[in-house]
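ok trying this again, last paste got cut off
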Amino acid sequence: MAQEIERKFLVLNDDYKKGIDGVFYKQGYLCSNPQRTVRIRIVGDRGYLTIKSISKGAVRNEYEYIIPRKDAEELFLLCERSLIEKYRYLVPYKGSNWEVDEFLGKNKGLVIAEIELESENQTFELPPWVGEEVTSDPRYYNSNLVRFPFSQWKG
């Protein structure tokens, strides 16, 4: 069983970009049920099918498979509501690798940093551009950003 242990944080400024180019991601959800998600994603020339279980804290099961890009493009037509587009920056910081997602479209203005861990108790140092932790806030799940985009949040 594949397991993902991930923590999410809001980003305070764009210092994470220094000397790093972002990679464009496009993704949609065939299922965004709170108990499970099924995601289609394109990164570069590759398509991906990902299935994730419900999160228990920072932990959930995850299964990811490479699929032909053409299949991914066709599956986007079956996805729920709007698609998510974003730039992802891979940022090393003091022995850890951070993924920073800068959202576009209806989620423009939202920037989230994620760190994948080996265990829930793993220690790591926060970069100075990382702010509030939002791991437990379901509004920040990509699958929820499809249904409730950042641009529609109040307050």
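PB: full thing came through this time. The mean pLDDT is 93.
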